[in-house]
Amino acid sequence: MQDIRKRLTDYFLGGIAAASPSQVLPSKLPKMQPKGRTLILGCGKAAAEMAAVARAHVSGPVSGCVVTREGHNVPSLIPDIEVIEARHPVPDGMSLKAAQKLIALAQKAGPEDRVLFLISGGGSALLAAPAAGVDFAEKQAIGDALVRSGRPIEEINLVRRHLSAVKGGRLAALAGAQGAELITYVISDVASEDPALVASGPSIATPFAPDQALDILKQSGWSVSPELAAAIHANAPPQLVPHPVHILARNEDALNAVCTRAAADGWTIIDLGKALTGNAADIGRLHAEIATDYAKRAGRFLLVSGGELTVTGARKGGRGGPNLEYLAGLMTRLDGSASIQALAGDSDGIDGTEDNAGGYFDVAWGNPDGARAALAENRTYDFFAALDGLVMTGPTRTNVNDIRMIAVEGQRA
Fold it and tell me: Which domains occur in the chain, in start order?
């Protein structure tokens, strides 16, 4: 297959572009300015870019603050809006500072003001203020343990919002207490259609389920003290008046852009699922079997999937996120007899915690034993780096989950 790596990379970048704030936000912003000011509050890996786009399209007095991941800021200052950078996936002192800043701004919103919430994936860690009775250091440790446990992000975020003073609609309740107009804009990184799950929903009301949060903690091996259990049970969210919520982009939008372009290039598109969850390596092994089957058929096939996979039981010091583990799992089940190449990457430009968006491999490289060893040690980053198989984009300033493609050259008719 001629220059397939370049094609897959172009499709990947095209999917990311389709979910960028500059493409999806402007048409949804209010055309008329409020009587008072516009207050912009946001969190997530896309928050700085969303804020820059919003500021360029909003007239009248504007102020605000957003928090994004380190390195995901926009190149130049945004007029009237402070951007704070914090750590991910475990919150740090800047995450706490950002939460305190947003809380203070929200509390000043008046009845003639309009508050725009700009929410994207990653915000759960980036915006972190512990609930009353919860120690910040313990909140950090719980977050780290849950991420390493490999539990679904929906469960992790459920626990996060029960430990929080800003999540689960609490920030919006503060902003709307004096009657301000509220509007939420979401770039979604969750497989579910529920926007409240993105960044643990700081502006969207969610059910209060303290017993479920405690069960998840216990099942993850966390020793729940009586003090922590009492704090979680006491952290009932306030009532929140419903307001407009716009989902601007999701994984499906990026995948549709990929499929449209690939189909125009002559590929037969095979949809393996737009909302996959589960262990990355296991899904990779399963997709290897499907790819092998298509390799026996006549035609050129692009097997496409999305969603958010996880790395279960990651070793301390391991390097490599779910997309590389997916590709390694794929590689372990391919014997080199078929013409197969694959690319998998995270739309935010960061696969796990490293500097790569994901990876690429050609079955002709043929090293299933090396892939197995890399998976056993959670060292897939080093494995793919040695193969020149890392995909590097840098932060993309959007976040709509993963884009995975397997290119299969089938039998000639």
Answer: 4-14+251-409 (3.40.1480.10), 21-249 (3.40.50.10180)
H helices then E strands: how many in the chain? 15, 12
18: enclosing H helix or E strand = helix 4-18
pLDDT digits over 221-270, tens only? 999 999 999 999 999 998 898 999 999 999 999 999 999 999 999 999 99
User: Token match 């790569």: residue?
Assistant: 356
Confidence check: pLDDT of 313 > 80: no
Query: The dihedral of CA 258, 259, 265, 270: what is its sign?
Result: positive
Buried (b) or exposed (e) across 375-386, using 16+ Cβ within 10 A?
A: beebbbbebbbe
Name the packing angle between helices 251-264 and 4-18 (round to 10°): 140
User: For residue 53, what pLDDT band results from cuts at 50, 70 and 90?
Assistant: very high
The contacts of residue 203 (CB under 8 Å, 6+ apart) are 41, 117, 119, 169, 171, 172, 175, 182, 184, 243, 245
In three state form, how does the secondary structure of 117-141 look? Answer: EEEECCHHHHCCCECCCCCHHHHHH
Residues 403-411, mean pLDDT to the nearest whole number? 94
Q: In what order do the strands lie in the sheet with 268-271?
A: 268-271, 300-305, 402-409, 339-346, 358-362, 390-391
How far apart are the C-alpha atoms of 69 and 71, rounded to whole Å?
6
**Gap between the Cα atoms of 115 and 105, Å rounded:** 10
The pLDDT of residue 195: 94
Distances (CA, A) of 367 to 99, 319, 331, 373, 374: 47, 19, 7, 10, 11
Query: pTM for this one?
Result: 0.94
**pLDDT at residue 282 in the model:** 97
Report the distance separating Cα 226 and Cα 250, nearest Å: 39
The helix/strand/coil state of 272 is coil
Phi, psi (deg, nearest 5) at residue 201 = 60, 60
Q: With bands split at pLDDT 50, 70 and 90, how would you rate the model's confidence at 159?
A: very high
Q: Pairing mode, if any, of strands 339-346 and 402-409?
A: antiparallel
- Contact (CB, 8 A) for 343 and 9: yes
Record the tokens describing residue 169, joined without a space.
Answer: 């609609």
Residue of 350, 276, 261, 262 whose CA lies nearest to 310: 276
